[in-house]
Amino acid sequence: MTEIAFHFNAPDRLAYVCRLLRKAVAADAQLVVVGPTDQLDRLDSDLWAFSASDFVPHCRAQAEPEVLSASPVVLAADTDGLAHKQVLVNLGDDVPAGFERFERVIEVVGLNDTDRQLARTRWRHYADRGYTITRHDLKLKPIA
Fold this sequence. Notes:
By secondary structure, the chain is of the alpha/beta class. The chain has a single domain (3-137), classed as DNA polymerase III subunit chi (Rossmann fold). It has helices at residues 13-26, 37-49, 65-70, 113-128; strands at 3-10, 31-34, 58-60, 73-76, 87-90, 104-110, 133-137. The protein has a seven-stranded parallel beta sheet with strand order 3-4-2-5-6-1-7, with helices on both faces. Helix 1 (13-26) packs across helix 2 (37-49). The radius of gyration is 14 Å and the shape is globular.
C-alpha cells in the first residue's frame, strides 16, 4: 500500500520542495512532482538556480524518452504515462489521480489557511481509504 506523508508548515513550499528533491535524489530516489503549470514553471526555475554545487537533475514530462529515463525528477501536470513510480510529490490542490501506483506520496503544505484547508480534505480522502498517514511538522524539524 502507498505510504502517505504530509509535510506541514512549509514557509516557502517551493524552496522546501527543492531541498526535499535534492535530498531524495542524493538517496537515488526517482520522483514525480505534480501540480499546476505555474507552480511547476516556478519549481523548474528554482531548481536551476537552487544551488551552485548541488544540481537537481530534472525534466518535464514532455521531454524526449531518453531524457525522461535519465532524469530522477520529472515535473508533470498529472501521473499519466510516467515510468517513475517511486515517489510522488503533490503541489496541487487535489489528490492526484493515479497516486496509488506510487510507493510513496508526499504532500507539502504551506502556512496559509487555504492551503491548510485543502490539505485537510486530501488527508480525509487518504484516511477514508485506509491509508496510513505520517505527519511531519516542519516547524519542529526542518529538512536539511
